[in-house]
Design brief:
Strand order of the largest sheet: 2-1-3-4-5-6-7
Number of helices: 18
Shape: globular
CATH topology of the largest domain: TIM Barrel
CATH class of the largest domain: Alpha Beta
Helix content: 40-55%
């Protein structure tokens, strides 16, 4: 079998957000696909443009047989720039595209020069396509027989005679068949923490999310043994490095095709935590979970024993009227107590809020800000509602004529790109980016949160309730660092925001 030169590129974002400095880790999709090929002896290189140390080696691109480009919606314009540059440097290369944006906008991707788009997940289709590619006598001359074989590969989109073609949805994949992604393939990457994906899908269908459209209305999870195997691999490679479990919800219920619960999310998380403890792999872990986990103090205690020191939680909204749009998953009367429960167990919180729902006003933004301060949430991400491709929200807003534009770079949660119900587009932009974010990340709040967290951990130490006090204290330092970055970033985005307000004046119907 011919050894292939494969270059993969993760396109960078054009703008800043509060956690730009802490989001410089590659996504796991490209390493997951290329790890088996590297093990077979193919020459695989991954470049992550967000990393200053991992800029694209265009000499390597010039020698590549295949160039893979991964993109989310806000990085799509950059991805298309990369396609054009690849064509200049290496006209013979076959260009592949993947990721959620290309899945839902595959025709756009093909029209911008990508040869083949992998839809949804590519764990099977990529390797089937690779077998097809290596069977070609001449990649520039594809026969009728070759085309028939291509149509048999599920989860693929491509052009024939300038007309887009899409094959059937790919078959589901058992997550236990995934290889452990080898991040050494990412050129110049020296990780500060590792992103670990242990599942696909979600058990809730929020209107603003494309997860169900991407992965289907179910949740597939890796077994505890495989998760422990992944953790052990990274511990042996990088030492006791912090690990972020990047699942959309690490405690989601595992569902079958009938949406019946096969394994409860709490049981799965409990098994993983116990597996970490039994294997002696406790360390600094963080994950994404639901706020309702605060009603399970025994599980929070087990998480703390395993070393989970931070939870990223979708608080979404403080308005009960928005509950349906957020998947009906929030108990607004319990939010304060559930928040306190995480804190009592030494788990810091990164709260993810979405502003711009149908019931939201300027007062909603102010109310959200006050509750963040009252509940002493360590870090907060105020995201403006985004009608991303693949989401039910986008379909509804397009039908209502409320989507202002398709400048994908602005689909980053920091720009208003649609006409809200009860608040003007420019009002929402100002309320979130120019008013709320500077207040939540001012220096007084930052040092208040840092001091409060340390005092809370000190109290846990004195009462012998802190299983890993060193991890907790380091977590507070991490909070301080993130908040200082946030303080600097909200000042840096001010100029861009003021410029975008003029853009909104042209688009929005609610302003003069």
């Amino acid at each position: 079998m011919e050894k292939l030169n494969i270059v993969a590129i993760e396109a960078k974002s054009s703008g800043l957000h509060v956690y730009s400095k802490h989001a410089d880790n590659p996504r796991t999709g490209l390493p997951r696909l290329l790890t088996p090929l590297d093990q077979l002896g193919h020459n695989c290189k991954i470049f992550c443009e967000e990393l200053p140390s991992s800029q694209v080696d265009w000499d390597a691109v010039a020698k590549a047989h295949i160039v893979m480009i991964s993109s989310i919606t806000s990085t799509a314009p950059r991805a298309y720039d990369l396609v054009r540059r690849v064509r200049e440097v290496n006209p013979q290369a076959t260009i592949l595209g993947g990721g959620p944006h290309f899945t839902f906008e595959y025709q756009e991707a093909l029209e911008n020069g990508i040869d083949f788009v992998f839809l949804h997940w590519a764990d099977i289709s990529f390797f089937e396509w690779l077998d097809w590619y290596q069977s070609l006598k001449d990649p520039c001359e594809i026969s009728t027989v070759d085309l028939e074989a291509l149509h048999g590969i599920r989860g693929l989109a491509f052009m024939i005679a300038n007309h887009p073609h899409k094959t059937k949805r790919p078959v589901e994949v058992d997550p236990d068949t995934w290889p452990t992604p080898d991040f050494r393939l990412v050129q110049g990457y020296k990780p500060k923490f590792i992103v670990l994906i242990t599942s696909e899908g979600c058990d809730h269908n929020c209107e603003f999310c494309s997860i169900w459209a991407m992965y289907g209305a179910k949740y597939r999870a890796r077994s505890t043994d495989k998760v422990i195997e992944d953790i052990r691999f990274y511990r042996e490679l990088y030492g006791n490095i912090p690990i972020f479990v990047g699942d959309d919800n690490m405690a989601a219920d595992t569902l079958n095709v009938k949406r019946e619960v096969v394994v409860s999310g709490e049981d799965r998380l409990r098994n993983i935590c116990q597996g970490i403890i039994d294997a002696g792999l406790h360390g600094s872990y963080s994950c994404q979970v639901r706020l309702a986990l605060g009603d399970h103090p025994d599980l929070l205690d087990l998480m703390a024993q395993a070393g989970f020191d931070r939870a990223c939680i979708g608080y979404e909204s403080v308005e009960p009227e928005n509950n349906k749009a957020t998947g009906g998953k929030l108990d607004f009367d319990r939010m304060e107590e559930q928040t306190a429960a995480f804190h009592r167990h030494g788990i810091a919180i990164h709260a993810m809020w979405v502003l711009g729902f149908a019931a939201d006003t300027v007062e909603t933004v102010k109310k959200t800000l006050k509750l963040c301060m009252k509940w002493k949430i360590e870090t907060n991400q105020f995201m403006i509602l985004v009608p991303i491709p693949g989401s039910p929200l986008r379909k509804r807003l397009l039908k209502q004529g409320k989507v202002l534009h398709n400048d994908w770079e602005k689909y980053d949660g920091r720009h208003v790109v649609f006409e809200p119900e009860l608040i003007g587009a420019r009002e929402l932009q100002v309320a979130v980016v120019l008013d709320a974010m500077p207040k939540i990340y001012n220096l007084f709040q930052t040092f208040r949160i840092y001091l409060d967290g340390n005092m809370r951990t000190l109290g846990r130490c004195l009462s012998h309730r802190a299983p890993h006090p060193r991890i907790e204290f380091r977590s507070h330092l991490g909070t301080l660092a993130m908040r200082l970055v946030g303080f600097n970033t909200v000042r840096r985005v001010k100029k861009d925001t003021l410029k975008y307000l003029e853009t909104l004046r042209r688009f929005s119907k609610s302003v003069a």
